[in-house]
Amino acid sequence: MNALDLSARMKRTVRAVAAADAFALPMLGMGPEQIRRDLGDGDLVRRLCKAPPGAVGSAFPPGAVSDVFAAGYLLLRGFLSDGGHITAARAGRALLRLKTDAAFRPYFDDFLDPVTREGLERLDGSYVSTRFDLVPCDGRRINCSAAARAWVAGLLNPGDPEAAIRDAVTLSMPTHPNAIAISGAAVSAALTAASFLPGFDCGRLYELALKAARDGYELGLSAAGMPPVGAKLPQRIELAVNLALRYRRDPEKLLQELNDVVGFGAYASEAVPSAVGLVIAAGGRAGEAVRLAANAGNCACCTAVIAAAACAASSPVDEALEEHFEKVRAAAPFDWEPLWAGLTAFAELVEGGRDVFTL
Amino acid sequence: MTDRQEKILGGLLAAAIGDSMGAVTEHASRRKLKKDYGWVDTFIEPHEALKAKGHQIGLVTDDFSVAYYSALPLIEHRQKVDRELAIEGLLRWNEQPLYAQCAGPTTITTINRLRGRPSPPSRGDLLLCDNSRVTNGGGMKSGMMGLFNPGDLDAAIDDTITLCGLTHDNTIALSAACAIAAATAKAFCPGVSYLDLIEAGIYGAQEGYARSLEHFRPVAASSISKRIALAAEIGLAHQDDLAAAMEEIADVIGCGLFAHESIPAAFGYIAAARGQVMDSLYMAINAGDDTDTVACMTGFITGAYCSSRDLSPRYLALIDEVNHFDLRDMALQIDAIAGNTPET
Amino acid sequence: MHNELYARLHGALLAAAAGDAMGTVSEGFAPEFLRSRYGGYIRDLLEPTGDGLTINAHAGMVSDDFSVAYYTAQVLLEHRSRITTALAVEGLRRWWQHPEYTCYCGPSTKRGILKLLGEADDGDPARLSPTLATNGGGMKAGMMGLFHPGDPEKAVEDAITMCLPTHSNPISLSAACAIAAAAARAFCPNTGYLDLISAGLCGISQGLEQSAGRTSEIAGSSVARRLELAVELGLRYQGDFEQALFQIGDTVGAGLYAYEAIPAAFGILAACKGRLMDSLVMAVNMGSDADSTACMLGYVLGAWNGDAELPPHFSDLIDSQNGFDLKAMAAGICAVVKEGIC
């Protein structure tokens, strides 16, 4: 893959991720049946819409993104400023901008999950220790927000899932020093990286998701130094994939079953395996995967972003996603040109310096 | 050869290999096979009883041969299957002395009827649901319909009902046959994965059942689509240990004559073997019971998925010679008749 | 009959309290960590270490799980009445006077109580936040099974009344009904452990049906489907205690969401074929929200097995450390049941 093609695919992934976040935002916190009834008129929602009153996303206009993309954007810009190298320190500094930078502060105020929030407080020294910090096992930091940002690690290791997993660990540690959270981040990063490989089909995707979940967990155990408390990813990934095979052609049943058994909630053991199941049900097509994820509701932004990043580079350009992105571009205060320029430069660097496209 | 032609040849050759390799292990139990052979992964010398019946290394049995002879009239008339051609193919097959003695029970009944010497009415004929006829004899030839409809699952399903409905005129045998055909057809789609093959099998089973409800006999048996999903679940969970996968599938799903065993088992092997053709055949061959049929059906699917490039040319030469086939030519002929492969 | 009913009631109360107390030592820990810290499985009432989620001072003290139900039951016995919304609230108010337990209360209960006591609630009740789908309903609803021994349907009705003030969402409620129904069923003759499981599932569907229109819709997994999954795992690993423990904990989870802890409880029940001590030990050593899971199992299996299996020193230790009189409570429930008051 030459630099031009690589940078085009990388930009497509970023646009898909932003579009996914925006598309899913109105559905945050709702269940699939509720979404179908109240937003979809008995069917899947396919257009950018407005959240119903009382819903989490109701205060935001169509096209607004959540902290999921905002954080990913800050991380990506931060790493690109240094040739795409990922370090924990740079990750921490980038995420802190959610709190300190006036343009990004609304994401901190309106959306940010408690785990990342606490992580930022630790980073800027404002965290007040509680007795829960004495517990030598960690059941608090098992949510999916690290996984929802880990696509950045995948993007910056295109075609190299092993390196993406290692970088996902680094990226997660400042806020999620927890093997279950890191396991989820590893899955997202690995799939994103692998989506740049030719011949990366759904079978390989399933196998890689399992491997990344296990490897990420082991690496996370060593990095975090204490065992996590909670359900784990590999068994849930198997459940999700088997449900995807059974109900691929019945989206209503698929979403209900995934919701009921695996879950679309904030735990890494819910959102990440369900995202994998949806990508497989969508046959690796990003537009469809995002549509399914958004219509799943609950932690929809995380699920949709993970799903989009896992297959946007290998999917053909999706018209609906590109349309949603144009609304994002109009609504949100991100600097797109420097970002595209950074990705172009990075792609040239990769083509010159790394031989990653072997399968 | 083009990509598509190589895939068609792959389907034909792998099905034939599965049938002929599996012929030697047929009817044996897993334990006996393990004791006698360890793990069968090559053509082995047939035992005395088989030799006495005229079997030799590389010879296919009823499974592949009936599919082969079903294809000949289509090739000669340069068209897809219809009822007349289905009958012609079946009767021509029955004229071959090599295979005449190994027709399955359901097939024999139909042949006798077509030849004007119907068997005396059995209790089965009087039953509303003759559940003894829910066998895999449809599935063993329906993979051929997948090859004739590369990438077009719905056409493969319709052709299967036409071809197999002749001998296996009940909803669940046809459901199973359509699963194999649909998965084989799916193997030709661009960018397809082995998970897609399994899902296509589930779709084929559901559609085959639904489309055969109106004109074919009802029977009582398990759901083919749900058992395919169950077998695939087992296979996926044991990808790192094919022998263990085989044991579990054989124990839970079964691999015998009945459609609700052998067709789901095939998909279980495909899931465990990640769609790899020879691995999937070995699992079927070593599982015992109706090994040649299961291996034949598996071979149509994974052979088309992997193409002839993953199969040994020595095996092609052996099969052609012993059976007087020309599989390469057949593949080219099928390719000429098949329409354009759909985009998705 | 009276003796048997009393023995089962006392068994349920003692086992629920014991499960809670044993579990406060392991709550919030990972199972592999517990194994290495304790060199094996926790099987007794131990002194909590200083680094857990609990800050109970002594072995044998229960936490919020059992205490909420205890004080609610006390109110019902004093009023000699079936539960009503007002009595449920009074039970909570009485419990709120005990800081040794209220310090543990879960997020949903705290939110609900502050609202009920007229203090400001900073959360908008109309917000569709899934974090309310916790197991705080399930942990007290087992008591309603004891007030309706052998009558799962009435137990479900009362579970709904008891839990609506603090857990007005279908997920928490359905989980509570599962425990109440199974506990009630445990008193029926000719009940096997699979019957307890199917009673739980019936309780869920009945609970959902009865509470429709009185709850706010919420996003989250299905208690019933997760329960089926947990039971499948439990049945598969009946011959291997350790595998069952890890598989249920890893696949289903045993955390504070109602679609984890309650399913896990039934999975444990299946794995242990309803044996009381084995089930409590598995729940306690699964860590995570161990005290809730074990407490809920205690109601069901204490009723099913009676009080004979529990270690003899448990009764006095639990009573003395908590200021309870479980024997008197069992006798009290026995009396109101016999009189047909409830």
Automatic annotation (TrEMBL), chain A:
Task: Write out the GO MF terms.
Answer: hydrolase activity
- One matching Pfam family, short form? ADP_ribosyl_GH
Print the keywords alphabetically.
Hydrolase
Family membership noted in the UniProt record = Belongs to the ADP-ribosylglycohydrolase family.
The protein, known as: ADP-ribosylglycohydrolase family protein
TrEMBL record, chain B:
Tell me its cofactors: Mg(2+)
Stored Pfam families: ADP_ribosyl_GH
What does the entry comment about cofactor binding?
Binds 2 magnesium ions per subunit.
User: Hydrolase: is it a keyword of this entry?
Assistant: yes
Q: Which InterPro entries match?
A: ADP-ribosylglycohydrolase, Ribosyl_crysJ1, Ribosyl_crysJ1_sf
Q: Which UniProt keywords apply?
A: Hydrolase, Magnesium, Metal-binding
Q: Which GO terms describe its molecular function?
A: hydrolase activity; metal ion binding
Annotated residues for binding of Mg(2+): T61, D62, D63, D290, D292, T293
Stated family: Belongs to the ADP-ribosylglycohydrolase family.
The protein, known as: ADP-ribosylglycohydrolase family protein
Which species is this UniProt entry from? Anaerofilum hominis
UniProtKB/TrEMBL annotation, chain C:
Task: Please name the InterPro entries in this protein's record.
Answer: ADP-ribosylglycohydrolase, Ribosyl_crysJ1, Ribosyl_crysJ1_sf
Q: Where does Mg(2+) bind?
A: S63, D64, D65, D289, D291, S292
- Where does the source fall among the domains of life? Bacteria
Short name of one Pfam family for this protein? ADP_ribosyl_GH
Gene Ontology molecular function: any one: metal ion binding
Write the record's keywords in alphabetical order, separated by commas: Hydrolase, Magnesium, Metal-binding
Relay the cofactor remark from the entry. Answer: Binds 2 magnesium ions per subunit.
Q: Which cofactor does it need?
A: Mg(2+)
Q: Which family does this protein fall into?
A: Belongs to the ADP-ribosylglycohydrolase family.
- Name the PANTHER family for this protein: ADP-RIBOSYLGLYCOHYDROLASE, ADP-RIBOSYLHYDROLASE ARH3
Name of the protein in its database record: ADP-ribosylglycohydrolase family protein
Q: What species does this protein belong to? A: Anaerofilum hominis
Top-down, what is the taxonomic lineage of the species of origin? Answer: Bacteria, Bacillati, Bacillota, Clostridia, Eubacteriales
